[in-house]
Design goal:
The chain is α+β, with helices and mostly antiparallel strands and 178 residues long. It has two domains: 45 residues, Orthogonal Bundle (Helix Hairpins), CATH 1.10.287; 108 residues, 2-Layer Sandwich (BirA Bifunctional Protein, domain 2), CATH 3.30.930.10. 48% of the residues lie in helices and 12% in strands. It is built from five helices and seven strands. The radius of gyration is 29 Å and the shape is elongated. The termini are far apart. GO terms for molecular function: ATP binding; histidine-tRNA ligase activity; RNA binding.
Length: 178
């Protein structure tokens, strides 16, 4: 449909909408109003959105992940507060590490077999990175880089695993580890 035909169709739809509003104001026969609405909807279908049903964008979370609403978050925060308070009672301090590490650093522990379960990334410069599989390697790297030999710490963060999640067993690709 060219631009001129599109404009004519839009004007027809607008006129039909005006007519329907007028009929509703005049309290016309509901059957007539329904027929006019159906005709207008048919015209609107001709406008289309440039996409077929197969090409429509569907909003959903990625497989193995989920959203957490206010109630779930309240429970999570309550549980984590209890856990954090226990760590602090025993003198632990918290640390935080990046959500991704250099791929070579992670593969040093997991090897190529473990590499199948790690999400890989590449930055604009071509550097290979991976999302953290667990909190062990980032912690070991932190200790080595900061020359720390003794620390009482806790770390609560999300980790990522590229496996085939089985939802019935409660397995996810993104989850918290402590």
């Amino acid at each position: 449909m060219n631009e001129a035909e599109l404009k004519v169709l839009q004007e027809e739809i607008k006129a039909m909408g005006d007519e329907i509003r007028s009929l509703k104001t005049d309290k016309a026969d509901p059957t007539l109003i329904k027929a006019k609405i159906a005709a207008m909807l048919e015209k609107k279908k001709l406008l289309g959105d440039g996409q077929t049903d197969q090409g429509k964008f569907v909003l959903k979370t990625a497989k193995g992940t989920r959203d957490y609403g206010p109630k779930s978050m309240a429970v999570r925060e309550s549980v984590l507060k209890i856990v954090v308070d226990a760590f602090k009672r025993h003198g632990a301090e918290t640390i935080d590490t990046p959500v991704f590490e250099l791929r070579d650093v992670l593969m040093g522990k997991y090897g190529e077999e473990g590499g199948k379960l790690v999400y890989d990334l590449q930055d604009q410069g071509g550097e290979l990175l991976s999302l953290r599989y667990d909190l062990t390697v980032p912690f070991a790297r932190y200790l080595a880089m900061n020359k720390i030999s003794n620390i009482k710490r806790y770390h609560i963060a999300k980790v990522y695993r590229r496996d085939q999640p089985v939802m019935t067993r409660g397995r996810y690709r993104e989850f918290y580890q402590c």
